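> run fold LysR family transcriptional regulator
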Amino acid sequence: MQISDVEVFAAIASGRSLSDAARRLGLSPMAVSRRLAALENDLGVRLVHRTTRSVSLTPEGEVFLPHAKTMLDANETARATLKADAGTASGILRVTAPSVFGQTVIMPMLPALMLENPALSIDLTLSDSIVDIAGQGIDVAIRIATIRDSALVARSLAPNPRVVCASPDYLVRRGMPLVLDELRHHQCIALQAMPFWSFTRHGEPVTVRALGSFSANSVEAVRTACRQGMGLAMLTYWDVQQEINEGSLRRVDLEDVIPEQLSVTAVLPTRQRVPHRVRLFIDRLEAELKKSAV
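> ok
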């Protein structure tokens, strides 16, 4: 059994497409088909159902997939250990992160990371929804919300408190709220998945519903609306750090409550056999966050 054949199978399983696997591995579709056939011959079973329109795993393919991933991870670890430069990484790194955080924090650090590690490929999925990292084959998820799945491995990277903010022109028109109760006199821009804003008062949790004329289903839309003077928004520090530093948004620090304190967290599906490329990415992100810590 050739490890290159196993890599082809894993790529097909990830994208459910021979042509997609060929493109990601830099091979021709014919070469991918031949390597898959060679692996199936070695194992004596059919791993993939192939039609003109779709590709799906057979029951035997579903059983073999986790073993294939283990083999590839072990191969990657062995290669990383034997390299003269132990700091390089290779293979495909699959990352998911919230949209704004990914665009403003992760994207700027990727060119240097990939230049230093030319054998590294990165698949980045930006979404404001919680992604099933185990089910979708994600190596690491960057999250800024409370981690509710105890089966996942979480590593805190940096503090990420929520911030109430508004544009300067909105505050000129409507005034600066000083205490929590005054929010009911303001336009509050709600993220549809989080209609309640969370605070603490004397150590006790307090929540209020964000009431206003505009809501959106994405953090980017909420941030844009806030910049355009449509109301107050509660976003996380890393979502609005640049705007606050530039002056296009101002913090609204209420006197009687403190916004919910979160952290930027790296979430892994397992702590077993974490590939070098994953550890390198997490360490680099943590270092970048420390440069601009709260």
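Residues 81 and 276 are 9 Å apart (CA to CA).
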